[in-house]
Specification:
Blueprint (H helix, E strand, L loop, with lengths): L1 H17 L17 H4 L38 H28 L3 H32 L8
Helix pairs in contact: 3-4
């Protein structure tokens, strides 16, 4: 054990002595200095932003939900009714999303990217509100949200 400690201490003491001083490098000739305009890359041409996809915002499993107004015999069960309401919600959101996206696609490139950004922001806000309302509904019905 003593030999190991002695070897480690020599190694730690010897490291600073073995390292070369960085300031002793050869001088770089001033003729090899690169002008700043050669380093700066020219700006890329305006890149068109990709349109948002409905799957970015939609809850999994409801990407292709279709609005149904009809009531069937199974509506007596609350889970069937709540599932129909949820599908209708996502179907209405998808129709709204697609209409807004269609208006964005008819704009020029600069306005189009701003429109896409606004659409993304709106859909994110709708998702946040949806999560808050879902939690509030569970709370009102005395459902334990964090139950395991």
């Amino acid at each position: 054990m003593k030999k190991l400690l002695l070897a480690a201490s020599f190694l730690l003491i010897g490291i600073p002595v073995c390292c070369a001083d960085v300031t002793e490098q050869a001088d770089i000739p001033k003729s090899e200095v690169i002008p700043a305009q050669d380093i700066i890359k020219p700006a890329d041409p305006v890149r068109e932003e990709l349109p948002p996809q409905w799957s970015e915002f939609c809850e999994a499993g409801y990407e292709n939900a279709v609005y149904r107004d009809s009531h069937d015999i199974f509506n007596i069960f609350s889970f069937v009714k709540s599932e129909r309401v949820k599908k209708n919600y996502w179907a209405e959101r998808r129709v709204s999303f697609e209409k807004y996206l269609k208006t964005c696609e008819n704009l020029d490139s600069t306005a189009k990217s701003e429109c896409y950004a606004k659409l993304r922001d709106m859909e994110t806000q709708k998702n946040d509100l949806y999560k808050i309302k879902s939690r509030q509904l569970l709370y009102e019905n005395n459902v334990d949200i964090h139950r395991r």
